[in-house]
Amino acid sequence: MIEFRPSTGKPMLAACLWSRWINPDKNKPDLLSLALITDEPPAEVRARGHDRCIIPIREKYVDAWLNPQGDVSMSQQILSDREQLYFEGSVLSD
Q1: CA distance 12 to 57
Q2: How many domains does the chain have?
Q3: How confident is the model over 15-61, as pLDDT tens digits?
Q4: Cβ–Cβ under 8 Å, residues 92 and 4
Q5: For residues 3 and 88, is the Cβ–Cβ distance under 8 A?
Q6: Residue 31 in contact with residue 48, Cβ under 8 Å?
Q7: Which pTM was predicted?
């Protein structure tokens, strides 16, 4: 297993989508789901054999990402203007 970390050493903000499905059967739990948004990986991640990488977002966009106003163009801008990070990889186990 390989672990990737941003070379900055700082926590990374990742774009994701979440949803809650409310079960009509009140005796059964609701379903919470989360998906990280991915794209083509940077060269250092691809070199380790991965064909996808999560999209890091800039801190200035957190509020806009968490509180969308219904206009898809802002979400597209946030994903396009992503933070450019270099990822260091280390092998954790086989």
Answers
A1: 8
A2: 1
A3: 999 999 999 999 999 999 999 999 999 999 999 888 999 999 999 99
A4: no
A5: no
A6: no
A7: 0.77
